[in-house]
Amino acid sequence: MADTSTQPRTLKSLITARRGRGRLHWTDVFSYTYLFLGVLLMFGPVVWLVLSSFKTPAGLIEFPPTLLPLGQIEVVVEGYEKPLLLFDVVKEDGTIKQLAQVRRIGIISQMVDPENPGETVSVPIDQRVKVREFRLAVENYTDPLERFNFVGFLNNSIIVTTVATVITLLINSMAAYALSIYEFRGRNAIMLFVICTLMIPITVILVPVYLVVTQMGMINSLWAVILPGAATPTGVFLLRQYMLTIPKDLIEAARMDKASEWSIYSKVVMPLTMPAIAVLAIFSIMWRWNEFLWPLIVLTRTEVHTLQVGLNAFQGELNVQWHYILAMTVVTLIPVVVVFAFLQKFITTGIASSGMK
Amino acid sequence: MTEIQLKQIRKSYGEVEVIHGIDLKVNSGEFCVFVGPSGCGKSTLLRIIAGLDDVTSGTVEIDGETVNGVTASERGLAMVFQSYALYPHMSVYKNMAFGLENAKLPKAEIDRKVRDTAEMLQITDYLDRKPKALSGGQRQRVAIGRAIVRDPKAFLFDEPLSNLDAELRVTMRKELSALHAKIGDTMIYVTHDQVEALTLADKIVVLQKGRIEQVGPPLDLYNKPQNVFVAGFIGSPRMNLIEATAVEGPEGLTLTAPNLSVFVGNIEGLEAGARCTLGIRPEHVRLNTGGTPDTTCEVVFTEQLGGETYLYCDVEGLPQITIHQAGQLPFVKGQSLELNFARENLHVFDADGQVLVNELGG
Question: Measured between beta carbons, which residues in chain A are less than 8 angstroms from residue B150?
């Protein structure tokens, strides 16, 4: 067995890895260009989102846009109650001087020299440039969390995601177990049937499911979000295909070892299906966390809103509070990223260690 | 001590019948080996006994009790799989303890049993390892240990040595034999390797195409094969089988084939003019030392192994004849040899392949 993973791979050796020894091969150049573009394409928007989430509302609509969140420097000038905004002004003789703006009237701005507060000058607005520094608008994050019930939304989202994921994993793995380990007439037909449900878009069954949920009195409870999507055809299919790769001998050995069906499922099959379970867990968490349409329909009271529905509140008909939306989008991204970071190693580990020859 | 009895076992997969009515009794404490070419149904038969496959008709009895409806887990048998089937995510200890845990034994007793068994098989050192960190032979031992630790009514082995290299196979074979002598339980062992069968078995069951060809102790099968198939299957290198015709002579019958004539006298059931098959093991082919040879051949290939010599000879119109002689023989390729077949070890089979006589005149 050639096992390359035992060699220590440092980050440096990983990002400077090349095809040949020594010189760059054209495939190296091609690969790195391709990978760089990929990173730019995938990661660029996320970086842009995070940077933008720290911008002030004015900074967001500014054109041309700035990359970093910037804020205009304000100075306290003697004789004025409020801090004044600072500008670079090009004087008639070509020199540049920093002046604070007292007020602006049309295209003329009345300015004062902070070092000489007694005298005001009038400057056309096209002759001044804002003096700015790197500044994070943290209030984008603190405001929604304090003013709106975002902690409550967060709670709801966490409850929905964890409970739904646990139920999904349990139900799907049991279905997959039956459809992969047992041999019975119509097994493939049932599997086909399960997969066929993938072809039905949620919008088609929206109304019927809503009626069912209403009849069961689950409207405005988190169960209305958790239960309808608990059994996913994708999950059953994914787990079943993986379970089919478990050697039949293992199951039979367990049978000979007097294992009950439950212990074959829980002690033999489930541990060996962990890589697939992890994949499904990541999927399920992402689906549930990002779910919007269905919660929006069944959760009408603010107390039961999830994050995604809560975010919608910032999007009025006339006024969209982009700074809050962006900041809270970052907040909603964090758990998914964390989950992925922790579970991704399971995705790559296969059944290679099955101990079979 | 467990006795296993099969009565008229039949097994079909859809329309295809693969086991055609097998009757067999495995006595208590016996080491019984099922041997046959691949596809002969030996593994299926073992799985039927284990309860992993259902029979289409017939009954399986363990200690006189019909167990057809009893699940594999309730039959109280242990099985060692060809792939070992160790649980990859459990340590060796856990692998061995799994069956006992399922039987809901107290922890202390499980621990004692596992450690005792591990000691017996000399695997105590790797009780904490995962199967993937073990070599083939070690895995094999663990698989056997997992069976022993449960103290089953009988052991079932499904080609357990076929994944090991030749040297290890010989070692494990001896260990298995010693193990059987030690614990004395009923064991059923499936293999396609007739050497394993001959060395291990108290009783060999030769199977072909879902039928039992012969049952008996190893040397019985070797010395008195009941048909052409068993004659050819048991023994290595295989028995020389030559199709011949019986010709009436003044003193009795002579079996003749192109360039071959073997006087056999009278054989019950063989009439003049009938087709038959003549069988002679390589070690019973003698070099002619005077008198009329049975046939004359040409050496085409020799294997000198030091202590023994194999000669492969061609006779026109006949299949290749193998000769096995002790010692080192000075023959070279192309040399002509006169051969005699030892009459006391000659086997004659009728046109249907059933034996007419073993040990002619012996």
Answer: 257-258
Q: Identify the pLDDT of residue B12.
A: 93
Given B215, B232, B249, the domain boundary residue is: B232
B215: CB partners within 8 A, 6+ apart:
B24, B203, B204, B205, B206
Amino acid identity for residue B235 in this structure: G
B55/B202 same-domain check: yes
Instruction: For chain A, list residues whose CB is within 8 angstroms of any CB belonging to chain B.
Output: 247, 249-250, 252-260, 263, 267-268, 271-272, 351, 353-357
- My answer on whether B226 and B274 are in the same domain is no
For chain B, state the CA radius of gyration.
Answer: 25
Q: Are residues B96 and B41 in the same domain?
A: yes
The pLDDT assigned to B291 comes to: 81
How many helices and strands (H and E) does chain A possess?
16, 8
**Which chain B residue has its CA at the smallest distance from A248's CA?**
B85
For residue A134, give the amino acid letter. F
Among B249, B259, B190, B254, residue whose Cα is nearest residue B47? B190
My answer on whether A182 and A303 are in the same domain is: yes
Q: Where are the beta strands (DSSP E) in B135-221?
A: 154-158, 186-191, 203-208, 211-216
In chain A, the residue whose alpha carbon lies closest to the alpha carbon of B77 is A256
User: Domain check: are B42 and B176 in the same one?
Assistant: yes
Number of domains in chain A: 3
Domain identity same for B154 and B284 = no
Taking CB atoms and an 8 Å cutoff, what residues of chain B touch A261? none
Instruction: Establish if A310 belongs to a structural domain.
Output: yes
Residues A128, A150 within the same domain: no
A62 lies in some domain: no
Structure tokens, A251 = 């199951």
B168 and B31 belong to one structural domain: yes
Chain B: residue nearest A251 by CA?
B85
Question: What is the ipTM metric for this complex?
Answer: 0.83
Give the pLDDT confidence score for residue B111 in this predicted structure: 94
Number of domains in chain B: 2
Q: What is the four-CA torsion angle of B151, B152, B153, B159, rounded to 10 degrees? A: -130
Q: Does residue A58 fall inside a structural domain?
A: no
**Residue-number span of the structural domain to which A84 is assigned:** 70-134
Q: Could you tell me the residue range of the domain that residue B187 belongs to?
A: 4-232
Per-residue pLDDT of chain A (357 residues; tens, 9 = 90+): 344 444 455 667 767 777 766 677 888 889 889 999 999 999 999 999 999 999 888 888 877 888 888 877 888 887 788 888 888 888 777 788 888 888 888 888 888 888 887 778 888 888 888 888 888 888 888 888 787 778 888 899 999 999 999 999 999 999 999 999 998 999 999 999 999 998 888 888 899 999 999 999 988 899 999 998 888 898 999 999 999 999 999 999 999 999 999 999 999 999 999 888 988 888 898 889 888 889 999 998 888 888 888 888 777 777 888 888 888 888 888 888 888 887 777 665 543 433 333
Dihedral Cα A352, A353, A355, A357, nearest 10 deg:
20
Q: What is the CATH number of the domain that holds A80?
A: 2.30.30
